[in-house]
Design a protein that fits this description.
Blueprint: H1 10-24, E1 36-40, H2 45-49, H3 55-74, E2 82-89, E3 96-100, H4 103-112, E4 115-117, E5 136-147, E6 150-161
Antiparallel strand pairs: 1-3, 2-3, 2-6, 4-5, 5-6
Helix pairs in contact: 1-3
Length: about 160
């Protein structure tokens, strides 16, 4: 019988993830590569893909990324920067905070992605987001990945912090 292994130290790993995001967003980075700076979530794929990682843990990951983006927004040197939280739904594996140097870099990033503007049926993940404040804009994109194993669809949420 194939049973999924227990996730050991989940609270500690989530606490370390929150500390890492807080540390990386406590100062505004001046190192931009190709017009942007990013910070991926520092949590392992087995944890995020586990059936034992419940909605409460996923909501904590999303809230931590949103808090980091808001913290960066308060540290902005000027208004030309764009701060985005990219959420990969439903697994959150590719989720990250991205800071773009300019609006042009943000648009170039969107053009380089293999996304289509759309809405998928991930209704059970609607409660991942806390109530969005008036200074956030949510855009949903559908990404389709084709490989030798088949075609996979996922949804990417872009939360633009204004």
């Amino acid at each position: 019988m194939n049973r999924e292994q227990k996730i050991r130290g989940l609270r500690r790993k989530l606490r370390k993830m929150a500390e890492h995001v807080e540390e990386t967003t406590s100062t505004f980075s001046t190192t931009f590569i190709n017009g942007y700076w990013n910070s991926k979530i520092p949590i392992g794929q087995p944890i995020l893909f586990s059936k034992r990682f419940k909605m409460r843990g996923k909501r904590l990951v999303v809230d931590t990324l949103l808090d980091g983006a808001i913290r960066l927004k308060h540290l902005l040197p000027d208004k030309s920067y764009q701060i985005v939280v990219l959420l990969d739904i439903p697994t959150l594996w590719s989720s990250e905070i991205i800071v773009f140097q300019s609006d042009e870099a943000y648009r170039a990033f969107l053009l380089n992605q293999n996304w289509t503007l759309g809405l998928m049926e991930f209704k059970e993940h609607e409660n991942l987001l806390r109530q969005l404040s008036g200074n956030m804009e949510l855009k949903r994109y559908v990404s389709v990945l084709c490989d030798e194993d088949g075609q996979f669809e996922s949804e990417s949420w872009l939360l633009l912090v204004q």
